[in-house]
Amino acid sequence: MKRIVFIICGIAGLAAIIAIIFFVSKFGFGPASTISNWGAVGDFFGGVLNPTFALLSLILIAYTLMQNKKALEQSEKAIQQGTEAIEQNERALQVSNDELALTRNELANSATALEEQAKLLAVQSFETTFFNMLELHNKLINQFIYIHENSHEGISRKLNIDSYSAGTVMKVEPGIKSINRLLMAIENANNKIVSNKSIILTFSMFYIYENKEFGRYFRNLYQILKLIKNSFPDIGIQKKYSNILRAQLSNQELSLLILNCLCPHVDNGEFRKFVIHFELLEHLDITYNLGDDNIATFTINNPTLNLTSNEIDQYFSTDTSGKLIESAFGQNSQIMDYCKFKNLVDQ
Q1: Cα(110)–Cα(162) distance, rounded to whole angstroms?
Q2: DSSP β-bridge partners for residue 308
Q3: What is the tens place of the pLDDT at every residue in 109-147?
Q4: What is the dihedral of CA 161, 166, 171, 176, to 10 degrees?
Q5: Nearest Cα to Cα of residue 343 among 317, 314, 321, 328
Q6: Are the CB atoms for 226 and 205 separated by under 8 Å?
Q7: Are 347 and 299 in contact (CB under 8 A)?
Q8: Within 10 Å of residue 278's Cβ, how many Cβ atoms?
């Protein structure tokens, strides 16, 4: 642009010099003598140089317009290129977003898979522990032995009775038969008491002397229930495993369990809460009796144990209105009849 300006200025200057030289060669050099001569001089230079300057100005303007046009075209191309670059960036950004979305989905799927795997491993770990404890449960039952003579004298003295029987079987056998003999001894000793025939008080004396035999069994049973309760928040899953455990419990075990959880030497009722929560006593062979005086009594069969309504009531959980929430006996028909009698459930 500067070069063109210099050229045009040079042409304009050259034209002016040529006009001056031509004028001087024809008319000489020096000031005009009259005003009319001055006007003629001005007309001469104006007529010669104005068209030339006008043409040069036109050429410069045309050149300027062409340069502006080129500049505009270049600007448009630059804008177009910028627009294309922006579009490419947008497409690249969209691709990146899609890739990020796919990555997030893959991470989410991986996290879900890991979570499921962790849950599966947790269940497998629980079941390994659970079934090992069940196996130990059965071993402890089979190892349990009750020898009547070992504690007979001490319990008789504590209960202030002469003697009590554990049945007519002379051979001492471990396992369920020993539990059966222990329950028979508890009931027989309780019947020999003259006053305050509380079977829980009687059991407490047996607990002092015989807990070394059945204490391990109940501690293991408590830990199994605690493991189930703490491992799963879902009550349905809890019942699934507690039902497996409940299926292992004989009537003799349930009979001893109901006495054990009422014994003041055991704990502050935590074991009994588990028994209620898991309805462990639902299949207990128990009979509900209502006397003429409307006093309810209960008899556990095989072997026989007599319980009061106060002892049975401790295995219920009720709301503020006195309605039954949970029962350790579940849907046991005999206990449900008693609950209807006491208006714990709707008729």
Answers
A1: 73
A2: 297
A3: 888 888 888 888 989 999 999 999 999 999 999 999 999
A4: -140
A5: 321
A6: no
A7: no
A8: 24
Q: Closest Cα to residue 297, out of 305, 288, 285, 310?
A: 288
Q: What tokens does 6 get?
A: 């210099």
pTM given for the model: 0.69
Burial code (b: 16+ CB inside 10 Å, e: under 16) for 296-312 equals bebebeebebebeeebb
Beta bridge partners, 299, equal 287, 306
Rounded CA separation 249/82 (Å): 82
Reported as half-sphere exposure (CB side, CA atoms, 13 A), residue 51 has a value of 5
- Which pairing describes strands 296-300 and 305-308: parallel, antiparallel, or unpaired? antiparallel
SS (H, E, C) the chain: CHHHHHHHHHHHHHHHHHHHHHHHHHHCCCCCCCHHHHHHHHHHHHHHHHHHHHHHHHHHHHHHHHHHHHHHHHHHHHHHHHHHHHHHHHHHHHHHHHHHHHHHHHHHHHHHHHHHHHHHHHHHHHHHHHHHHHHHHHHHHHHCCCCHHHHHHHHHHHHCCCCCCCCCCCCCCCCHHHHHHHHHHHHHHHHHCCCCCCHHHHHHHHHHHHHHHHHHHHHHHHHHHHHHHHHCCCHHHHHHHHHHHHCCCCHHHHHHHHHHCCCCCCCCCHHHHHHHHCCCCCCCCEEEEECCCCCEEEEECCCCEEEEHHHHHCCEEECCCCCEEEECCCCCHHHHHHHHHCCCCCC
pLDDT recorded at residue 47: 67
CA distance 8 to 312: 123
Q: How far apart are CA 210 and CA 185, in angstroms?
A: 12
| pLDDT one-digit tens code per residue, 178-199 | 999 999 999 999 998 877 778 9
For residue 16 the two structure tokens come to 């002016």
Q: CA distances (Å), 70 to each of 1, 63, 245, 307, in order?
A: 12, 10, 93, 112
d(CA 227, CA 82): 68
pLDDT, position 31: 63
Give me the amino acid identity at 300.
Answer: I
